[in-house]
What we know:
The chain is an all-alpha fold.
Amino acid sequence: MDITGGDREGDNKWKSGIALLKGQIYEALDNRMIAITCFKDALKYDVFCYEAFYSLTQHQMLTRNEEEAIIGSLEFENQCTKDETKFVRFLYESQLKKYDKPGDITVPIEFSNILYENVDFMTTLAERHYYNCEYQQCFRITSQVLTRDLYHTQCLPIHLSCLMELKKTNALFDLAHKLVDLYPESSLSWFAVGCYYLLINKTDAARRFLSKATTLDNVLAPAWLLY
């Protein structure tokens, strides 16, 4: 019985998990260069390590060319079947620098039924609409996502930003109040409060709550941008 392949796969997943954890620690310590190296290592050992890819792309650690280079360097053929390679590559490529005036996503037909019902992929679509200033389309999608999962951490910042762009003051107040009641220790709750006060032009209060959000999560990029 040959168990070498299985042992190697398990060993790589363990190494990937350790590299991911180290990356998260270094990122929390604001040592982004070492964190980047650790996240890249996590992906090298396990191409399915979405958490590492998410950190690299969503925390603005890389340029678009660097992001594309990472996808090009991943050894899909050694870790995935052909269908898995196509699926994972598509998901990763859909995450690339959406604020560079992104175009429409063409979803492979064999994945459409799965992806259009997936809240993470719906959030990716919403984010692309947001960066194209298509706020109504963005709001429609983020509202659907939050109906299913009120505390979808990737969707919430986009939805809150969209509420600001559309000047939906009452909706922003209600959501911020609900989030603070439900999740008082969450950075996103206080980010929501900061967004509300900024929308009603109470800058000092907005900065105070945005500062609280960044204290709770020092890599919450939307809060830093508004602060």
